[in-house]
Amino acid sequence: MTPMAEDLLSVLEPKSAKGKSAKIALPKGLDRAKVQRMYRLMVQTRQLDDRAMKLQRQGRIGFYVPSIGQEACAVGSAFALSDKDWCYPSYREPGAALAVGVSIQAMIHQLYGNAEDVTKGRQMPVHYAFRKQRYVSVSSPIGTQIVQAVGTAMAQRIRKEKAISITYFGDGATSSNDFHTGLNFAAVYKAPTIFLCSNNQWAISCPLGQQTASDTIAVKAKAYGMPGVRVDGNDVLAVWQATSEARARALAGEGPTLIEALTFRIGPHSSSDDPSRYRPNEQLETWQKKDPIERLKKFMKSAGMWTEAFEKEVVESAIDEVNAAVKHAETVPLPASSTLFTDVYATMPPHLVEQQERLLALEKAQGGAEIDKNAAFPL
Ligand SMILES: Cc1ncc(C[n+]2csc(CCOP(=O)(O)OP(=O)(O)O)c2C)c(N)n1
Ligand SMILES: [Mg+2]
Question: Measured in angstroms, how far is the CA atom of residue 99 from the centroid of ligand 2?
């Protein structure tokens, strides 16, 4: 299904009433420093993605999910949050983690699952969780996070907190039971939730036209009784604006919003995928021309917010930070085997105490943990 461009909320490509292009107006609440910050976050996200894919190809990490081309969806929306809001992401929002204040180092530790990884190597790479930033663990089963976010939003409503919950998911996730359950419940009870669907037009090899017969994803909001906003997902300023407005409505007690951010998955679904086997090249080429970083750069140049020196500093510092983080992560050992038994029970049950003792005795007898570093990652 080809979406109609006219339907999209856009800041970077405004249209006058007569359909001619108009002057770009910065949304209220944004200024030069904020725009430059969003640019930096998108560049950092891209550098992290680029390096992480290479690390996977070199066998240094097991798995990765790139978000190349979708940086504006994650950065623009998460940049509109406050530090009291809760984030329930999918695996394709590293930019949201950076925007809410997670460090590149913390994310790279998670990719390695080492002793400094806050999830202690217990999650698949990219399944980040950062308690301090209220960034709740990515779940592999599609749609899981949608109902979790609604539950948190209900708690926020009941406690009268000045905060909202946002959940991210893809076009494929709109076919999950949790999408229906979450949107219906949130609308009925006016839970302050933002449902941000990054419609990248593919769910692995399933194209959008086989995912839904609706004209758009945003139109589904009407049936649930909430606003549905369709936004140019490669326009970071428009995504910021749509999210800020949805957040203001939620805080005012007006309930949830479904935002459809129209974008495209430039890379493979994951490091285990080869999209050239199922996806037309022309579609890729069309969307490569709509790169969200390039589009923001063009605006910033015209508005006097971008110089060659700024670009150099932003790109080089992002590369340096990623390099330093990888270098450090590779010096950190894996989590101690004893941590396999912790964090579940306040008092460890006797059978686990016995298993832990046996494992540690075995390790001691063989002079350390036995790790097969050549074992292939199972995905
Ligand atoms: C319940 C469930 N079914 C199937 C899968 C396998 N799976 C992983 S990602 C994915 C596609 C999801 O597509 P979409 O929601 O559009 O998100 P995108 O990957 O495009 O960001 C599928 C089918 C899964 N993880 N969970
Ligand atoms: Mg998708």
Answer: 21
